[in-house]
Structures are given as C-alpha cells and as structure tokens.
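Researcher: Re-running this chain for the archive, since the previous output was lost when a drive failed. Same request as before.
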Amino acid sequence: MTLKTTFPLSQRALIIDGRSAATDLKAILQKRVNKLYRDRKFKPGLAVIRIGNDSASAIYVASKMKQCKELGMRGFEIALPTNISLKKILSRIQDINEDPEIHGLVVQLPLPKLLNKQKILSAIDPKKDVDGLHPQNLGLLAAGASDGFSPCTPLGCLHLIHTFQPDLKGLHAVIVGASNLVGKPMGLLLLQQGCTISILNSKTVTPSDIARTADILVVATGKVGLVTKKWIKPGAIVIDVGINKDEKTGSLKGDVIFHDVSKVAGAITPVPGGVGPMTVAYLLSNVIRAAECS
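Model: Regenerated structure tokens:
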C-alpha cells in the first residue's frame, strides 16, 4: 500500500500543524465541558503533583493549569519538596483518589532519582489515571480494550498521523524508541489501526535501514538530530516527539533534522508546534472523559 499524498513528492513535505490541530480539538472539548456543567452542574477537575524543583516541569504544569482554566475546568497544582518521603506522596495520592471534585490525577515526570516511580504511578486510581501510565491501563491498551486511558503523547501522535492519512491499514509503522511513555503504547495504538509494527531500541542493528522501510516513522529518543533524510522512505509520514533544548541558543530542537528530512518525507511535524500541543490537548480530553464517566 502506498500513501495517499496530495502533492508531488519532489516538493518539500507537508508540515503537520500541531497547534492548529490542538485548537480544533479543544473547541470540541469546550462543548463537552459546557455540557457537563449545564447537565450536571460541575466542572472537570485535574490535579497535578509536582515533586522537586525541575524548571521544565514547572513550566509544563503551569501550561496545563492555564489550559484547564481556558476550557472552564478546575486545575490543582500540588507542589511537593524533593526530599518528601514516599509514604507522604502515597498519602497525598490517596487523598486525591478519594476526592470527588478531582477526576484526573497526574504525577509530573521526571521524578527525583531516589523515588520509586512505579510505586507512585501504581498508587493512582486507574479511573483517574489520565496519563494512562497505571499498569492496569497499560494492560488494557495491550489487550486492545477501549475502556482504559491511553498515554496522551501517543494519542496526540495518532491524531496528527490521521490528519494526513486517515486509513492506516496495511502500512508499516516504525517507532524509534521503546519507552513506556511513548514507544510501546504508540506501537500498540498503531497495531490497533491495522499497521505492521517495528519498534527500534538502542540495541537495534542498522536502525536507519529499518526506518527507511517505514510508511510512518515516529521518533521518540531524546537524541537531538538523530534522524536524517537517509532514514526516510520518500513520502513517509514523520512524527518527531523529541523536545531537546539547545545549550547554546536555548531553542527547542527535535530528534529529527527537520530541514533535511522535510526534503524527502511526505508529511512531518515541526518542533516546537507539532506533538507538544496535542499532548496537553489529549490530557484534557482524558480528564473530561473521566468526568463524564464519574
């Protein structure tokens, strides 16, 4: 099967605008929030626990709180010190699990190194796990069930892929990076769409050779500029999940060399302005869904 491109492959790739797609999605979400308030007289609530003083995490949480407010949702930021005990963290999570005004709970990652991430994520009520990282929700995704929450970044990636190629059946999707946050759930979501899946990791031999067979290439490694045009099949959809800060300029760069790859790809997401806005939009979507099911 070949991709249904709408322009000659000799031209530069179509840029998939994540900001525009997120704006369109949030307009739909706004209607659902309004309906909840009109019919049931409450607003969806999101709590975000932030542990430590990571500056990037603080910026991300502030953005989530701002976007909650913009949609008429309730946002609660809970800032905890780096040296807090695991017992106290689990106690705070349990309090939120039992709070009927909070429908979604996120523990902002990354955590301080000495904390047990798996114990913390596993303590979240699966029905409030809007990041989709609780083992129960990951298991439901692996089983192909639709009643759990899927991680937000892969959901956002899939949405952007569909803006360019609605029918993915029979296409070969290659995911570069095998994390629980992006790579593995991305593979499962694409498998549900009828794709043939290859997931590459740091031990993969000749990854560029495998990537060149991909109709859809999703890159999530955190290695700036890893992917060049030599990795790309002409006309492929390229989704760059990487967000890396340039030490010299302070600008954000992806895992994909955009100006190089865009000469070969059929469609590509930019950094910034690609996957990032969709991640937050799908977080809000998951919170609203949790509220609707409460």
